[in-house]
Design a protein that fits this description.
Helices cover 50% and strands 5% of the residues. InterPro entries: DUF247_pln (IPR004158).
């Protein structure tokens, strides 16, 4: 680590910092215009590192990469801390921020679930250097400008009309220049617009306006990977940017068609939609997916998908902290005490336990290759941006229900899970690792349901018998000692009875 030492002695440095009010005010006034720093989250790309000269960027480093204390003597350390104090600033908290990097605790469990594979969107996941998709993005911008008769500068002003507002949207925004940020976001927003335009033409390579994208997206694997990248937590641009492009006069792709393409994209990636193979139910699914919420009013694409997966009929649930989690026994254990499972069409809002019929209703989940990545990014978004814990609660419930292949077979027979991964082992591993490092906070809805299930589970005679058997008869020496103690107690009681009887008979 290279440290710039001040020229003046240490004592004079402290005296200058503490005794010059004008200098102190100037140094504390400027930082309020700088972006905030999150000491809890890990940047998604190296470009986000070293955002501040304070010690936060040292604390976030792995232990083996942190500077060793022995590399400084006491005078050097005093000068270093004095410089840190002199240049420290207070992070600004803004409630409007909706685009975050993935939290470090989740990223360390499965890093590849949060990393783009085909395309990077936005400034959090990208460095300012050439990338494989730059040619496609540049061509999209050129075609878009040609259709609308715009120059690049004018297009950039349409997309990002207030660059300073970006710091109120992105958390840990890299310290790029204003023009670089505007161009980067313009490239990415126009690319998403043209990709949706391409979707509206049914992937037709002969289309006059958007057939050129077929050169870059010419097979189903590339399309599915690209769609997956558009729903990563840090790979987002504000929806308002896309809406500004849609509001430009365009007979070929009006805003109504853009809205339909967005809804189709969200429906296609929603793991709770069960009619992917049935085109007759597609339209009805799309209509019921988000309800009264317009996709163009969401914060970004991932927020659209989250809204579709966690639609609450009675508004947002309130988060309850420091309460027991919603862990349940496994599906096999619940089946043994008479509880059955039933698949429901919908999202997490359909989860319900019916006490009289002993039925636990769960949404049907269709599991494809991209489902794990989608769920992980939705959970990360909920943990960073939402107050409710609906999706985390669902993940904890499924993780507790699934432990062995027998549990999977029970849920599959009930229609709760539809596995397209090719093997049960992959699905077991997915759920066994899904809730690692996820907070145990649960909402009141989940706790009431969990309490009702556990009350029936603990009161069932089979459970009480199993607990009694495991406590007293699972270990031979324990039940033998129990029998011996009972025999000794009985013999002692008989001896006492005979002694009392002999006393009265002799008297």
């Amino acid at each position: 680590m290279c440290i710039m030492m001040p020229e003046e002695p240490n004592d004079h440095l402290f005296e200058r910092v503490l005794s010059d009010p004008a200098n102190a005010r100037a140094r504390w006034a400027y930082p309020y215009r700088r972006p905030s720093v999150d000491w809890e989250q890990t940047p998604a790309a190296p470009a986000n590192r070293n955002r501040s000269r304070s010690i936060g960027h040292l604390i976030n480093l792995p232990v083996d990469q942190q500077p060793q204390q022995a590399s400084m003597n006491d005078k050097q350390w005093l000068r270093y801390i004095a410089e840190e104090i002199d240049q420290a600033y207070r992070p600004v908290f803004v409630k409007r921020r909706t685009i975050f990097s993935v939290p470090r605790a989740l990223f360390e469990v499965r890093p590849r679930a949060y990393c783009p594979r085909i395309v990077t969107i936005g400034p959090l996941c990208r460095k300012l250097e050439p990338s494989p998709m730059d040619s496609c993005k540049a061509l999209c911008v050129r075609e878009f400008m040609g259709r609308h008769g715009l120059q690049l500068d004018a297009l950039m002003d349409v997309v990002v009309n207030d660059p300073e507002d970006l710091r109120n949207i992105y958390f840990n925004l890299p310290k790029y220049g204003t023009e670089a940020l505007k161009l980067l976001l313009t490239l990415d927003t126009v690319f998403i617009h043209e990709f949706l335009f391409f979707m509206s033409k049914d992937y037709n390579p002969d289309d006059e306006f958007c057939g050129y994208i077929y050169t870059f997206i010419n097979n189903q694997i590339t399309n599915s990977q690209l769609t997956r990248d558009l729903f990563l937590i840090g790979n987002q641009v504000p929806m308002v940017f896309l809406r500004r492009l849609a509001e430009l006069p365009n007979e070929e792709f009006p805003i109504e068609i853009l809205k339909l393409c967005l809804e189709y994209l969200v429906w296609q990636s929603n793991p709770f939609c069960i009619s992917h193979m049935n085109s007759s139910d597609q339209h009805q699914d799309i209509m019921n997916m988000i309800g009264d919420v317009s996709v163009l009013d969401c914060e970004h694409l991932l927020d659209c998908l989250y809204t579709a997966c966690v639609q609450m009929p009675d508004g947002q649930s309130q988060q309850v902290f420091n309460r027991p989690s919603c862990h349940l026994p496994t599906a096999s254990a619940l089946t043994r005490v008479g509880i059955k499972f039933k698949a429901r069409k919908g999202n997490t809002s359909v989860i319900k336990y019916r006490k009289k019929s002993l039925i636990l209703e769960l949404p049907r989940l269709v599991v494809f290759d991209q489902t794990e990545d989608i769920l992980r990014n939705l959970i990360a978004y909920e943990l960073t941006s939402k107050e409710g814990g609906e999706l985390c609660g669902y993940a904890v419930i499924m993780d507790s229900l699934i432990d062995t292949a027998d549990d999977l077979a029970i849920l599959d027979k009930a229609g709760v899970l539809e596995n397209h991964l090719g093997s049960d082992e992959r699905l077991l591993r997915m759920w066994n690792e899904m809730c690692i490092n996820i907070s145990e906070n649960s909402s009141e809805k989940w706790e009431v349901m969990t309490e009702a299930i556990m009350k029936h589970y603990r009161s069932h005679w089979r459970v009480m018998y199993n607990e009694f058997y495991s406590k007293f008869f699972s270990r031979p020496w324990l039940w033998l000692s129990t029998i011996a103690a009972v025999l000794l107690l009985g013999m002692s009681a008989l001896q006492t009875i005979y002694s009392v009887a002999a006393y009265y008979q002799g008297g």
